[in-house]
Known about the structure:
Signal peptide: 1-21
Protein name: Parvulin-like PPIase
InterPro entries: PPIase_dom_sf (IPR046357), PPIase_PpiC (IPR000297), PrsA_foldase (IPR050245), Trigger_fact/SurA_dom_sf (IPR027304)
Domain PpiC: 150-239
EC number: 5.2.1.8
Order of helices and strands: HHEEHHHHHEHHEHEEH
Number of strands: 6
Amino acid sequence: MRNLLxxxxxxxxxxxxxxxxxxxxxxxxxxxxxADAKYDVDTVVATxxxxxxxxxxxxxxxxxxxxxxxxxxxxxxxxxxVQQLADQLVLADSxxxxxxxxPLAVKLQLQNDRRAALANIVAQKYMSGPVDDAxxxxxxxxxxxxxxxxxxxxxxxxxxxxEDEAKKLLDEIKGGADFAETATKNSTDxxxxxxxxxxxxxxxxxxxxxxxxxxxxxxxxxxxxxxxQFGWHLIKLNxxxxxxxxxxxxxxxQIEEQLRQQxxxxxxxxxxxxxxxxxxxxxxxxxxxxxxxxxN
Length: 296
């Protein structure tokens, strides 16, 4: 829900002109403001045909910029946003100077934008607010209560193109060749640089043929050749262990997000219950949403 609301807001922001993006890379020096400069939300930063553009307009647009533009220096943003707003007003005035005369599509979009902006404020209250530590701990305890340890494996492998090549290397290893050195010299995948070491992995992280082979091996055993979609493998099982439940610190961000979502959904259900909502779209064919001629 949060992503939908925010996406709705960003969709209403005009695209920043390429020229501004280029200028932003090498902004012109801006004079430093006076230490006692006074301003408020109504401070006029530009006028177009007598219509004021205020600092509040600039701040509202800045909040809705994509992340890459948020990182620009403030001087660059101020200059660029004021120019963007001025250009928008010039273009807008060429079509309509009175809201009553705005095209129907504009009026409908403004209605949608207002709803989205207000809804986003409510959503942000729940999605960015603090979460009670006791609630986090309780949610964590509930999750780990049902945790079931699963086997995990630490394995190394050698990957080659043909079965014959794999058999030849297996014979060398059985004859005393070091597995890691053999992997470094012969394996065709990126793990060769680490002597074939793949690290720890659990169920579902490897292709089925590889996983089945490892699950049936003993610690220190070398098995193969095993064919997978990637080629032919020789596998060495270095160690095994049982998976451990994640620590609270490791999953705290996910738990906090989950609790915020639950709080938001509870508030949404409360508001739905308190409101008179009547959905009457059943009589409208679904294809009607693509009938743009209705907006003309």
